[in-house]
Amino acid sequence: MARAGRRILAITIDWTIALLISNVFLAGNSMATLAIFAAEQILLIGTLGYSIGHRAMGIHVVKPDGSAAGPLAALVRTVLLCLVIPAVIFDPDQRGLHDKAMNTVLVRR
Asked: Structure pTM?
């Protein structure tokens, strides 16, 4: 299981990328930044199983049995992640509510 440090660094990398894109192309609009962040999460986790930040930190989103999370899990997980609260409430296994809701885990690869 990926621990909090790697998770926080990964989301920081992803948010920074979204913020840079938003600043360059959309005058730093906060809603645009959130939309870019969400699009990256949905597209990359739904297809590859990791975002740019996850890849940089060597972590991957999977189901507990090791299978791919898939597009639906990526979508719902991202919506909950963007609400923030589900992401900062987690269990002893370091699974946030957004992961528990879609039965996904972040693992080190």
From this structure: 0.92
